From TrEMBL:
Pathway(s) annotated for this protein in UniProt: Amino-acid biosynthesis; L-lysine biosynthesis via DAP pathway; (S)-tetrahydrodipicolinate from L-aspartate: step 4/4
Cytoplasm as UniProt keyword: yes
Active site (record annotation): H152 (proton donor/acceptor), K156 (proton donor)
Underlying gene: dapB
Residues holding NAD(+): G10, A11, D12, G13, R14, M15, G95, T96, T97, A119, P120, N121, M122
Protein residues bound to NADP(+): R46
Name this protein carries in UniProt: 4-hydroxy-tetrahydrodipicolinate reductase
Amino acid sequence: MNQMKIAVAGADGRMGRMLVDALDAAPDAVLAGALGLAGSPAIGQRVGQAPGVTIEADLAAGLAGADYLIDFTRPEGTLKHLAYCAEHGIKLIIGTTGFDDAGKAAIAAAAEKAAIMFAPNMSVGVNVTLKLLELAAKSMSEGYDIEIIEAHHRHKVDAPSGTALKMGEVIADALGRDLDECAVYGREGVTGERDPSTIGFATIRGGDIIGDHTVLFAGTGERIEISHKSSSRASYASGALRACRFLADKATGLYDMQDVLALKD
Ligand SMILES: NC(=O)C1=CN([C@@H]2O[C@H](COP(=O)(O)OP(=O)(O)OC[C@H]3O[C@@H](n4cnc5c(N)ncnc54)[C@H](OP(=O)(O)O)[C@@H]3O)[C@@H](O)[C@H]2O)C=CC1
Ligand SMILES: O=C(O)C1=N[C@H](C(=O)O)C[C@H](O)C1
């Protein structure tokens, strides 16, 4: 079998370790390289079951044998990796969240030179939930207040989560609204009555919560809650491998998990 040669960025991180394990278990893929942050004690450490793979800070060394890079790091790290992958035609699977508009534009531009998967949540369940939210928002466009509540572990550095923001975008699009104009990120003090055109966000951080998202449609006399709860990071890792398989025959272009799961209209 022709195995996919996949490198992992942030190989010593929570998702990086999970991805290395998933690659070790995948019959159609092999860990072909590993990247770490320069200065980290992880540099030079051996990872995975494939012989000779060590965590490298130097991109040329870490990516020498790879056709794919899976990157769950930080926006500044991903953008550095992005430039290298675009230049060398390495397919890039981006799970990192917290990009600003300039970062997102750089990803779109790089997709003209390499195939890129960019999704704030690679789990099948969350991506099906996005589809359910589109339907719910269209059916409850009047008379329902929409609030998005997310909870994550104490180490998470960005808020709201990339998934919560994506949920907001999907709902705003379905309602013909612009999320930048209607999002309310937290409330404090005398806020006045709720504006029905807004989409509210609430963020919880604590302990080892892997990732919970609930969208509340609160009407008169009833409320609907659509929730997804992660109980293992394995679902993100298996989604990332599925994304690699999807990119196998793509040379360029920007894709998301809705493409992988054929959930686009
Ligand atoms: N799309 C999805 O399905 C999912 C997305 N995520 C996202 O993935 C990202 C990583 O999450 P998680 O694994 O929990 O985070 P961790 O902090 O556990 O891991 C991050 C890794 O990236 C490395 N890193 C940090 N900064 C840089 C940099 N500037 N350049 C290169 N490498 C860097 C870290 O190195 P060091 O340890 O030395 O700091 C570490 O190895 C987050 O943005 C998170 O939101 C998470 C889960 C699922
Ligand atoms: O940082 C995390 O852990 C997660 N981040 C992603 C996000 O910001 O949505 C995906 C998942 O919720 C876990």
